[in-house]
Amino acid sequence: MSTAGSVRSDGATGYGPPSSAGAPATPNEPPPARQRTRIFRWRGLLPLALGLGLMYAAWALFGERVVRDTLREAGTKALGTQLDIAQVVIDELHTTVELRGIALADPFDVHRNLLEAKLLRVELEPDPLLEKKLVLRRLSIGEVRTGTQRATPARPVTGGGFAPSMLREMDRWAKQFDVPLLSLTPVDTIRAIVLDPTQLASVRAALALVTRADSVRGTLEQSYRSLRLQETLDSAQALLTRLQGANLRALGVTGGRTALADTRRAVARVDSARRRVEALATAARTAADTLQLALRSVDDARRADYAFARGLLKLPSFDAPNMGAALFGKVTIDRFQQALYWTTLARQYAPPGLLPKESDGPKRLRRAGSTVHFAKAMAYPRFLLRRGDVSVTVSDGPARGTYALAATDVTTEPALVGRPTMFALRRSAKGEGRVDSLRVTGMLDHVSAHPRDVITASVSGVRLPSLPLPVLPYKAEPGRGTTEMRLALEGDRVAAHWSLASGTLTWREDSSRVRALNAMESLVARLLTGIGVLEIDAELNGPVRSPKLSVRSNLDRVIADRLRAVAGEQVLAAEARVRTQVDRLVEEKTAPIKTRIADLRAETDRRLADARAKLDTQKQKLDAQVKTLTGGLVGLPKLPGN
Amino acid sequence: MLALLKLLQSLVKTLHSDGTPAQIALGAALGAALGLTPIANVHNLVILFLLAVLNVSFGAGILAWGVFVPIAFMLDPLFDQLGHWLLTGVPALRPLWTTWDNLPGLALTNFNNTVVLGSVVGWLVLFLPIYFAIRLAVVRYRATIGERVRQSHFYRVLSASQLYNVYRWFSP
Questions:
Q1: Rounded CA gap, A391 and A521, in Å?
Q2: Would A210 be classed as within a structural domain?
Q3: A632 touches A265 (CB < 8 A)
Q4: Model confidence pLDDT, tens digit, residues A3-29
Q5: Model confidence pLDDT, tens digit, residues A311-358
Q6: Number of domains, chain A
Q7: Would you say residue A221 lies in a domain?
Q8: For residues A515 and A420, what is the distance between their CA atoms, to the nearest angstrom?
């Protein structure tokens, strides 16, 4: 190809030395015509087309595999648990995608699959694809199984991203609950209590009170000194000494007037000092009362210390509410944790508002960066499933049967859609399978700035999963029963309720934890295995980060009463020892405080009484002096308090 | 090593092609986009198309791609910051990005990714400096040691290869 500024390859080069250096051009030869450079090189289209053809061939050969791997990786990262996809089939003409052999591991149990589906087929609307948006026209899922065992344990999702960090956050969240321990170890073998006194709230309060009492004492001392009583008394005494024996005749009119004025000023100073003394007395009384009150709060803190010290003993509280948490607290937290995890995930992927949202960029050799999504009113959201009606066939497990799942307005930008996401799952056919009825409904309202999520699930006539007892090598097998769950997230507050009821409770030895039982454990085991009804009622309320958990069950009272009767004496003795120990420690610290407060009160009272007496005496003397000077015609007003 | 040899081969061929310095520089400036920006993006298809159909040095473009890839890795943090600033730090540009992100076709450009946008803007800023620097370098090379290299055994072996003929399809 030739271009401007170039010559043919068989001739001289355009930039090389001339063929005959220094020789002038032949005058007869016309100067070489300047060729115009062509802008386009259409011949280049040929290899370009070839390249595109190769790209298409590569897509045809490897495209679906690449998409499958990408989906697998992105799904695993987004959901925080391993997602396997056996095959992806893409029909570009009909904009449909089929995912085959899907298995989603349970994020809370690596040996189980939360869900397996043989086929998932989505029909996409083509236009939004040009905007990199997925609007699903139709979604169908076939042959779904839940709770199946995995052949190989799921790999933990270790990377960054929201879901793995959320999973870790959920672990921390679950650990915050102080599930009481139900220790059935004989009380006399319980490890000796070793208390660091400063662990006790009352001791800490007492130590703080010492500092406070010292500070109050210092303040009162300072206030007393600032009364400057001695100066006032000395000044009055000096005046009295100066005027001793003087009378109006000896002083004269002017001298008498001056003496009278001096005496009245001295009286005024004494009065002022007396008022200051009374004010100080009031302040001192208040301060002493406050210290006394604080001392009472130390006693209040002692009650909490009893419970704390008893906790160090690993003794159970035989109160029924604690018993419920000790027996089924872990199971309950697991249920709430899972419900909360999925709801929080939904909030993350469907946040309210139309502000730009950042997410991690696509994985590549180079830096991924972050991708900012700009939502626009009256436009497609990034993902939207207008309505999905899915028939789910659970072919194995306790929930075997056919279910109908309907979901509307599942989207990543709820503010664009303007309606909350709703979904419902129910049994579509009666008389088959092992579940009498199942109904799950949910509403994820992220349309406004204050998100609200409500999920309710109720299952009856289902074989309930076994519940391992943390304290004994036994599992409760509730058999067929009813379970209900309601989870409501309002902003950052959670209100959840879970209940389980079964009339066919049986108990099975947990072979993996089987061991010899001590007397108390045997007693509880006999007690439990005689109970054939199970009712659990759990509630979770408060801020999502630190909600309050309460668990009740029909076993609580039975076990609590029985344990109290059998182990009562030993437990009471141990508790008494703890109380004595706490009392001794607290007394050690509070006794000096009590003495200090009493001393402070007595010392202040004594000093102020002394001050009052001195002032009163001086006042009387001054009064007498005035009478002497005026011949008894003018008296002094009485001092306040007299 | 092979990649380095290929680069060297490409460099020599380009420098001794019939192309003018301007054509080589333009090809290199276009090819820099392939190296500076993440390759699997729509705008790079446009760049490839331009390299193929414009009468510029295709070889220089491919050479620039190889040369600018490591530079891009080094500049990625900068591109990321630049892209982030443009996407989120300039409120006046938000309507543009919102429209861009919601327009059929344009949304596929991935310009809402900080590294993609930052590197494309970075490449556009560097386009003219790359062009002028390479044009000057080619002119200097040809005026100094170019002819000696052309007469060398190495160059003759290189230009006799079959690959060279394929390469000449794109060589201006």
A1: 48
A2: no
A3: no
A4: 333 334 443 344 433 333 334 444 455
A5: 666 554 555 556 677 777 777 888 888 888 888 888 878 787 777 888
A6: 1
A7: no
A8: 52
Per-residue model confidence (pLDDT) at position A608: 86
Phi, psi of A81 (to 5 degrees): -150, 155
**Residue-level pLDDT at B143:** 85
Q: Which of A37, A372, A383 to mutate to test the interface with B (most CBs of B within 10 A)?
A: A372
Q: Are A371 and B99 inside 8 Å of each other by CB? A: no
- A344: three-class secondary structure by DSSP: helix
Cα separation of A215 and A466, whole Å? 61
Contact yes or no for A476/A381 (Cβ under 8 A): no
pLDDT: which is higher, A415 or B93: B93
Instruction: Determine contact: B38 vs chain A, CB below 8 A.
Output: yes
Q: What is the DSSP string of A455-519?
A: EEEEEEEEEPPPEE-SSSSEEEE--EEEEEEEEEEETTEEEEEEEEEES--EEEE-GGG-----H
Encode burial over A413-440: b for 16+ CB neighbours within 10 A, e otherwise.
Answer: bbbbbeebbbbebebeeeeebebeebeb
ipTM above 0.90, yes or no: no
B50 phi and psi angles, rounded to 5 deg: -65, -40
Under an 8 A CB cutoff, do A369 and B115 touch?
A: yes
Residue with the two structure tokens 């406050």: A290
Q: Cα A97 to chain center, whole Å?
A: 40
Question: E-assigned strands of A10-82?
Answer: none
pLDDT given for residue B111 in this prediction:
94
Q: How far apart are CA A296 and CA A597, in angstroms?
A: 12
DSSP-derived secondary structure for B54-90: BSS-HHHHHHHHHHHHHHHHHHHHHHHHHHHIIIII-
> Cβ A370–B114 below 8 Å, yes or no?
yes
A133 contacts in chain B (CB < 8 Å):
107
Give pLDDT < 70 ranges for chain A: 1-37, 159-163, 177-197, 199, 247-249, 310-323, 393-399, 429-434, 519-520, 563-571, 574, 631-642
**Which residue in chain B is spatially nearest to A55 when comparing CA positions?**
B45
Assess contact for B83 and B113: CB atoms under 8 A: yes
3-state secondary structure B145-164: CHHHHHCCHHHHHHHHCHHH
> pLDDT category, B156, cuts 50, 70, 90?
confident
The per-residue pLDDT for range B31-44, each reduced to its tens digit, is: 999 999 999 899 99
Q: How far apart are CA A411 and CA A414, in angstroms?
A: 6
Predicted confidence band of residue B2 (pLDDT cuts 50, 70, 90): low
Q: Give the pLDDT score at A571.
A: 65
Which of B 77-136 lie inside 8 A of A, CB atoms? 77, 79-80, 83-84, 87-88, 94, 97-105, 107-108, 110, 112-116, 118
Inform me whether the C-beta atom of residue B44 falls under 8 Å from chain A C-beta atoms.
no
CB atoms < 10 A from the CB of A291, how many? 21
Whether B73 has its CB under 8 Å from any CB of chain A: the answer is yes
Neighbour count for residue A17 (Cβ, 10 Å): 9
H/E segment holding residue A379: none
- pLDDT of A91 reads 93
Structural domain boundaries, residue A117: 49-158
Q: For residue A65, is it within any domain?
A: yes
Give CA B67 to chain center in angstroms: 8
pLDDT of B40-70, one tens digit each?
A: 899 999 999 999 899 888 888 988 999 999 9
HSE of A428 in the Cβ direction (CA atoms, 13 Å)? 14
Closest CA to A371 of B154, B138, B108, B24: B108
Interface mutation vs chain A, best among B49, B113, B142, most A CBs within 10 Å: B113
HEC secondary structure over A122-166: EEECHHHHCCCCEEEEEEEEEEEEEEEECCCCCCCCCCCCHHHHH
In a domain, A100, yes or no: yes
The residue written with tokens 């004010």 in the block is: A279
